[in-house]
Amino acid sequence: MNNLNFDPISLTQALVKCPSVTPKDEGALDVVQEHLIHLGFQCTRLPFTDEKSYDVDNLFATIGSNGKHLAFAGHTDVVPPGNEHSWKYPPFSAKIDGDKLYGRGSEDMKSNIACFISATNDFLNKNGKNFNGKISFIITGDEENEAINGTQKIMKWTKKNNIIFDQCIVGEPTSNNFVGDKIKIGRRGSITFFISVKGIQGHTANSHRAENAAHHLTKLLSNIISKPLDNGNENFLPSSIQIATIDINNTAQNVIPELAKATVNIRFNDMHSSKSLIKWMSNHVSKVFDKLDKASCKFTIQANAESFITKKGYLTELMTKSISESTKINKHPEFATDGGTSDARFIKDYTEVAELGIRNQTLHKVDEFVFLSDIKKLKDIYLRIIENFFIKN
Fold first, then answer.
1. Cα-Cα end-to-end distance for the chain
2. Catalytic: 143?
3. Is 77 a catalytic residue?
4. Which CA distances in Å does 355 have to 19, 172, 335?
5. Which residues of 333-348 are buried (b: 16+ CB within 10 A; e: fewer)?
6. Per the residue annotation, which of 143, 144, 374, 387 is the catalytic one?
7. Which of 25, 57, 77, 355 is catalytic?
8. 73: how many CB neighbours lie within 10 A of its CB?
9. For residue 110, what pLDDT band results from cuts at 50, 70 and 90?
């Protein structure tokens, strides 16, 4: 790659210009790798395959020797841009307009990756490659979709190769009103139930000869949303039950449907687990269907993540101190667990992990953008974190 540029804004542009919609890479990992190779990193591409999912390319890069080991984790894949005609500028043009850089993935999360690379470049230029520690990058191309051949397999690979981390920062867009005001120290879990009810088809005028699947499904759905799972706790918002789809697929107004389906997604806190929620759903199904002879219900599940939380300690103190020193703002950042899932759920079993990145404002939206001033601020915060991790502590 020619014309390597470690300016975080230019590097963000280079990454955004790669239309890396999951699972396509389109050169995004090459941009990261070439910059890190130039800095002296040892780079290993990790293409993973699985019969249950699409093939994915990933990157693990490391520099340094003995000493404390700090990892940065992120993803170069992005969600589809949707209707490109709705965008102010082409979604992969990385157009700069005033203080804004537009493009799919600019916020989620290519600017964050660019900032950490840029910060690492500044740190190494100042301190050299012998800084009594290690810095590693864990970069996947499979976070936005199935996440089967991404970070979870990278982490298994690191364990197999006896690579041990002390702390890890995930560069998801976590900030709220200003860069550094919010750190994610955990996430809610996610489980989806695919419910299918079978009755008996018939004429709407002869209901005594049929069994309406839709009636039983709606009763079940009404029951499961009638009472909150919990009221939340000190670290988590209340768990959320959301009916995502209802499908009767009936084209005639005078036919009682035989089949009715629904999808229910639950984002749950640490008061629950996938196992406990499967039992909870089974109990609700039993209450509605166990005494019925002419209707039945079954469901399948997709358990994407368990809830988790990182205890406040060295990593959160390091990040808090570094944010304050960099921004000159003494307000303590919020420690939060809201939002969707992230790859921190795969990293938590291997090392202490927290998330810090750009402001969360337009990710997955049309005209996704980041402020140029925010990119500069995040780069400075990351640099201070690296300096404090290796030099001052």
1. 36
2. yes
3. yes
4. 25, 6, 10
5. bebbbebebbbbbbbb
6. 143
7. 77
8. 30
9. very high
Following DSSP, what letter does each residue of 250-315 receive, concatenated? ---TTEE-SEEEEEEEEEE-TT--HHHHHHHHHHHHHHHHTT-SS-EEEEEEEEEE--EEPPSSHH
Residue 299: the pLDDT is 98
Which of the two residues, 391 and 62, has the higher pLDDT score?
Answer: 62
pLDDT tens readout for residues 250-301: 999 999 999 999 999 999 999 999 999 999 999 999 999 999 999 999 999 9
Q: Which residue has the tokens 């969707």?
A: 340
Both tokens of 225, joined, read 């949303």
Question: What is the distance between the alpha carbons of residues 153 and 155, in angstroms, rounded to a whole number?
Answer: 5
Helical segments of the chain, H only: 8-16, 28-39, 111-127, 151-160, 213-225, 274-289, 314-327, 344-347, 372-387
The two structure tokens encoding residue 102: 């537009």
Whose structure tokens read 């990293």?
347
- pLDDT digits 0-9 by tens, 298-326: 999 999 889 999 988 999 999 999 999 99
